[in-house]
Structure formats: structure tokens, C-alpha cells
Amino acid sequence: MTAAADGKPAGQANILVRDLEASDYNKGYLQLLSQLTKVGDYDEATFKARFDEMSKRSDTYKVVVIEDLDKRQIIATATLVVELKFIRGCAKCGHVEDVVVDSTYRGLRLGLRVIEALMAAAQELGCYKVILDCSEENVPFYEKCGLTRKEVQMVKYL
Ligand SMILES: CC(=O)SCCNC(=O)CCNC(=O)[C@H](O)C(C)(C)COP(=O)(O)OP(=O)(O)OC[C@H]1O[C@@H](n2cnc3c(N)ncnc32)[C@H](O)[C@@H]1OP(=O)(O)O
């Protein structure tokens, strides 16, 4: 991705779609996530410990990122969590979480790219469906990604 002088992206992207790496702590991964929600204040060792826990469960967690190779910056991410079920012959259900594209890179189909990557991973991992919760305003985006509206979300914070 070449960025124009005003900071807005322009031209063809020099990007890489790949799995999250521990070194992405230093490429703005948490700053990107903070554009989605509160991340909290913690150091690199804490990030690395959580990264290692997730890496050990690679059949359960898949975190996809897009790196701007010129800036060495993480500009998009999404996470797949695979739930093991007893129903449907011990099926697996994929949950998409924590989808965010850096505000200066939105509208460049990078959101679509991370969702496509997760859908491919969900298929490879044997999920029979993929579900997610989102705001009303993001429904058109997910419809463009091939999902359809179903049921409602409920929550209780603990
Ligand atoms: C499960 C969850 O995590 S839900 C949380 C989702 N994340 C957020 O709300 C964080 C803030 N928002 C963002 O990071 C981004 O706006 C995202 C992730 C929602 C979308 O990423 P982008 O890279 O901007 O979207 P992208 O360019 O891939 O859009 C794909 C298509 O959806 C359309 N689209 C994207 N957002 C919207 C929208 N809000 N309303 C209507 N259409 C939209 C685009 O126009 C495009 O259509 P096209 O194929 O006809 O060109």
C-alpha cells in the first residue's frame, strides 16, 4: 500500500495476508485492535504469553492479519474461534471475532480479504457454519462477505 502525502491510502497495495506473529506486537497490532474496542494496558510479555496459548491451539484459534509491507504495520485483522459441539454428529462451528481495518485503509476491500481468509480456514478446519455478532451498521459489509442475517445477539457482562 502506498500512502499519499495526506496519509490516505492510494494506488496498489503492497500487502501481505498472513497469520498473526508474536512480533506483530511491534507492528501496531494492539493499536489496530484499539480502533475496535478497549484493549487494556499490558506489556509485550503478556501479549506473547497469550499469543503462545493461542498458537498451541491452532485448531481452535486462527488470527489473520494484513501487513502493509512498506510501513511494516498491521492494517487489518480478524479472528476465527472454532467451537466443538455435541450436536450434528459432533460438528464444529466457527465464530468470527475482532474484525477491524485501520481507519485510513477502509473501503479498499481489506475487510473482505480477512473474512475470506477466515472462511477458507473455517472450511479447512471442518466447520459446518460460521457465525458472528455485529452492529446494524455493519450488516451490509457482512452481506457483501456472503453472510445472511439470522436471529439476535444477547449478552450479559460478567
Ligand atoms: C464480528 C466483528 O468483529 S464486528 C466488528 C466490525 N468492525 C468494526 O466495526 C470496526 C470498524 N470498521 C472497520 O474496521 C471496517 O469498516 C470494516 C471491517 C467493518 C469493513 O472493512 P473495509 O475494509 O472498510 O470493508 P471492505 O472495503 O472490504 O468492504 C467490502 C464491501 O462491503 C461494503 N461495505 C463495507 N462497509 C460497509 C458499510 N458500513 N455499509 C455498507 N457497505 C459497506 C463495501 O462498500 C464493499 O462493497 P463492494 O464489494 O461493493 O465494493
TrEMBL record:
GO terms for molecular function: glucosamine 6-phosphate N-acetyltransferase activity. Residues 15-158 form the N-acetyltransferase domain. PROSITE patterns: GNAT. It is found in: Endomembrane system; Endoplasmic reticulum membrane. CDD domains: NAT_SF. It catalyses: D-glucosamine 6-phosphate + acetyl-CoA = N-acetyl-D-glucosamine 6-phosphate + CoA + H(+). It is a peripheral membrane protein. Pathway: Nucleotide-sugar biosynthesis; UDP-N-acetyl-alpha-D-glucosamine biosynthesis; N-acetyl-alpha-D-glucosamine 1-phosphate from alpha-D-glucosamine 6-phosphate (route I): step 1/2. Keywords: Acyltransferase, Endoplasmic reticulum, Membrane, Transferase. Pfam families: Acetyltransf_1. Its main location: membrane. Its EC number is 2.3.1.4. GO terms for biological process: N-acetylglucosamine metabolic process; UDP-N-acetylglucosamine biosynthetic process. GO terms for cellular component: endoplasmic reticulum membrane. Belongs to the acetyltransferase family. GNA1 subfamily. Homodimer. This is Glucosamine 6-phosphate N-acetyltransferase.
